[in-house]
C-alpha cells in the first residue's frame, strides 16, 4: 500500500503538471477555434511576419552553427588558456534576461560610435532597428546556446576514436571531418533545430535592439506583442499558436534524432 | 649493429593509482616482441604511450633516431590495435579497412585491401557495420586496418584473444608473412604463452609497471621461433 501511495503521489504531480501545460498552451484553440486561427494566419501581415521570422532565424542559425562548431570543439577537446572563464562567458547570454542582451548590444553600438565618431550612424554597419539587427539579436543568444549544445555532442564522441584515426595517419583536421563530425551528427542536427527554434521564439533582444516596427521588424514574437498591445487579441492568439506548433515540430525533430535539450 | 625500430627510454607514466616506472625497452627492426605478464601490469600503457594515446610523465619514446615523445600519433608510423578494436562505428568494414589508405592510392591498393581481407577471413563482411560483426571478426578487421596503414611498427594488444585456436593460428601465420613482406616490427601483448613461444623472437615480462625479464639488464633466452630463425 505504501508503494502505491508513493507512486500515486508522483504520478499525480506528473499528470497535473502535464495537464496544466496542455491547458495553457492549448487555450488559444479554445479561445478562437482552429478555423479562425487559420483564417487569421492567412492574412498578408501574418504571412510576412512568419516569412521574416523564418528568414532571420534561418540566417542566425547558420551563422551561429558556423561559429559554434569550431568554438565548441576547441572548448571540449583542447587545453586552452582561460577555458573556464571563456566557458562561463559564453554561457552568460543564455542565463541572463534576454532584454539585457539586447540592451547590451545597443550600448555596444553607442560605445563604438563614441570611439569612431558619428560616421557609423545610418551606414551599412549600423544594424540598430533594421532587419539585419534582428539577425544580430538572434545570433547573440543562438550562438552561445549552440556552443553549449554542441559541447555535449562532441563530448560524447570517444577521444580514443579520434586518436585511433590519427594513429592511422589521418591529420587532426581530417579526423575532425572524417570521424568527429559524422559521429556527432545527430547531436549537431538536434542542436541546429533547437537553436533555430530558440531564434524563432526570440523576443527581448529583438524588441530592444531592432525595435517593434510593424511591417519592418515584426517577427512573429514582436507581432504577437504588437497585437496584444493594440487589443488585437485574436491575431496574437493565432500567431502564438503558430509558435507553439513550430515548437512541437522542433521538439519532435530533436527527439527523432535522439538529442537531448541542454539549456542553462 | 641492428637498427632500433622503437625504444622506450626510461619511461614513467604516473596515473596516481598506478604507474609505469622508469621502463626501458628496445624493439629491433624486424623483431617480433611479445609482452607477457599479469593483468594490470602496465603492458597496455606501454603500447599506448608508444602510439601517442598517452603522454609519458617522464622519459622518451624513440623511433629510430627520432624522439617522438611529443609527436602527434600520425607522425609515428606506428599502427596500434587496441583491445577494444576501436573500429569506426559509422563506417562499414570496407571503409574501416580503407580508412588509413590515402584517397589517391585507394584504387591502386584495392587488391592489397582485398587480399588482406581474404587472408583474415573477413572478405564476406566488407559491407557490414562494426555493430553487426562478432568480437573475433572485429579483431581481424582492426588487424587488417592497421596493416593497410603501412606502418613500420605494429602494436597488438591481445588482438587475437577473441579468436578460436585455429583462426588464431591462421592470423598468426598471416602476420608472420606480413612481417617480412611489409618489413614490420611487431610488439604483441598476449596471455597465450604458446602463441608467444611460437611467433615471437623475444618475450618480455611486465609486472607492476616494470620490466621484470627481458630488459637489457636482465636478458632472457631466445624463443624457439628466434632459435629456428638464427639456425636457418
| Count of individual domains of chain A | 2
Regarding quaternary structure, what we see is heterodimer
Counting H and I runs of at least 4 residues, what is the number of helices of chain A?
Answer: 12
CATH T-level topology of the largest domain in chain A? MetI-like fold
Write the CATH architecture name of the largest domain in chain A.
Orthogonal Bundle
Low-confidence sequence ranges of chain A: none
Which series of helices and strands of chain A comes N to C? Answer: HHHHHHHHHHHH
Arithmetic mean pLDDT of chain A = 90
Count of folded domains of chain B = 2
Q: What percent strand of chain A?
A: under 5%
- Output the strand order for the largest sheet of chain B: 6-7-8-3-9-10
- Strands of chain A, count: 0
Q: Greatest interface and its residue counts?
A: A-B, 16 and 22 residues
Characterize the largest beta sheet of chain B: strand count, sense, and whether it forms a barrel: 6 strands, mixed
Q: How would you explain this protein's 3D organization?
A:
- The complex is a heterodimer of chains A (264) and B (232).
- Chain A is mostly helical.
- Chain A folds into two domains: 1-32; 43-256, MetI-like fold (Orthogonal Bundle), CATH 1.10.3720.10.
- Chain A contains twelve helices and no strands.
- Chain A has helices spanning 2-32, 34-41, 44-77, 83-95, 98-116, 131-155, 159-167, 172-183, 185-201, 204-209, 220-229, 233-256.
- The model of chain A has no long low-confidence stretch (mean pLDDT 90).
- In chain B, α3 runs antiparallel to α4.
- The A-B interface holds A 160-161, 163-172, 178-179, 182-183 and B 51-53, 72-74, 76, 78-80, 82, 84, 86, 88-90, 99-100, 102, 145-146, 149.
Amino acid at each position: 500500500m505504501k508503494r502505491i501511495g508513493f507512486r500515486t503521489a508522483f504520478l499525480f504531480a506528473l499528470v497535473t503538471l502535464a495537464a496544466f501545460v496542455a491547458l495553457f498552451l492549448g487555450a488559444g484553440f479554445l479561445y478562437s477555434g482552429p478555423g479562425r486561427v487559420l483564417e487569421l494566419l492567412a492574412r498578408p501581415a501574418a504571412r510576412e511576419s512568419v516569412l521574416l521570422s523564418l528568414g532571420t532565424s534561418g540566417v542566425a542559425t547558420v551563422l551561429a552553427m558556423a561559429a559554434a562548431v569550431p568554438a565548441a570543439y576547441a572548448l571540449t577537446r583542447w587545453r586552452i588558456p582561460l577555458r573556464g572563464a571563456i566557458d562561463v562567458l559564453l554561457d552568460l547570454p543564455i542565463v541572463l534576461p534576454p532584454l539585457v542582451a539586447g540592451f547590451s548590444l545597443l550600448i555596444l553600438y553607442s560605445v563604438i560610435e563614441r570611439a569612431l565618431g558619428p560616421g557609423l550612424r545610418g551606414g551599412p554597419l549600423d544594424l540598430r532597428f533594421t532587419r539585419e539587427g534582428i539577425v544580430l539579436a538572434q545570433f547573440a543568444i543562438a550562438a552561445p546556446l549552440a556552443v553549449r549544445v554542441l559541447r555535449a555532442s562532441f563530448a560524447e564522441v570517444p577521444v580514443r576514436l579520434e586518436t585511433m584515426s590519427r594513429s592511422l595517419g589521418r591529420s587532426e583536421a581530417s579526423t575532425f571531418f572524417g570521424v568527429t563530425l559524422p559521429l556527432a551528427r545527430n547531436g549537431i542536427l538536434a542542436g541546429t533545430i533547437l537553436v533555430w527554434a530558440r531564434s524563432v521564439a526570440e523576443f527581448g533582444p529583438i524588441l530592444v535592439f531592432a525595435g517593434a516596427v510593424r511591417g519592418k521588424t515584426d517577427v512573429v514574437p514582436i507581432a504577437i506583442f504588437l497585437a496584444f498591445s493594440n487589443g488585437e487579441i485574436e491575431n496574437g492568439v493565432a500567431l502564438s499558436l503558430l509558435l507553439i506548433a513550430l515548437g512541437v515540430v522542433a521538439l519532435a525533430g530533436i527527439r527523432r534524432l535522439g538529442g537531448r535539450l541542454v539549456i542553462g | 649493429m641492428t637498427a632500433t625500430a622503437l625504444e622506450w627510454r626510461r619511461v614513467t607514466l604516473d596515473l596516481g593509482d598506478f604507474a609505469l616506472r622508469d621502463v626501458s625497452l628496445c624493439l629491433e627492426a624486424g623483431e617480433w616482441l611479445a609482452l607477457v605478464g599479469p593483468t594490470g601490469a602496465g603492458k597496455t600503457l606501454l603500447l599506448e604511450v608508444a602510439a601517442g594515446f598517452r603522454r609519458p610523465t617522464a622519459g622518451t619514446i624513440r623511433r629510430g633516431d627520432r624522439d617522438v615523445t611529443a609527436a602527434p600519433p600520425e607522425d609515428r608510423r606506428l599502427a596500434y590495435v587496441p583491445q577494444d578494436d576501436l573500429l569506426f562505428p559509422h563506417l562499414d568494414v570496407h571503409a574501416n579497412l580503407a580508412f588509413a589508405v590515402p584517397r589517391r592510392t585507394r584504387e591502386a591498393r584495392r587488391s592489397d585491401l582485398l587480399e588482406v581481407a581474404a587472408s583474415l577471413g573477413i572478405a564476406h563482411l566488407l559491407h557490414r557495420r562494426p555493430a553487426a560483426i562478432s568480437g573475433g571478426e572485429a579483431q581481424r578487421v582492426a588487424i587488417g586496418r592497421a596493416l593497410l596503414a603501412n606502418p613500420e611498427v605494429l602494436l597488438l594488444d591481445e588482438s587475437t584473444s577473441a579468436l578460436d585456436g585455429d583462426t588464431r593460428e591462421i592470423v598468426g601465420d598471416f602476420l608472420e608473412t606480413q612481417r617480412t613482406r611489409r618489413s614490420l616490427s611487431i610488439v604483441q601483448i598476449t596471455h597465450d604463452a604458446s602463441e608467444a613461444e611460437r611467433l615471437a623472437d623475444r618475450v618480455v615480462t611486465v609486472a607492476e609497471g616494470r620490466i621484470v625479464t627481458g630488459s637489457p639488464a636482465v636478458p632472457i633466452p631466445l624463443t624457439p621461433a628466434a632459435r629456428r630463425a638464427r639456425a636457418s
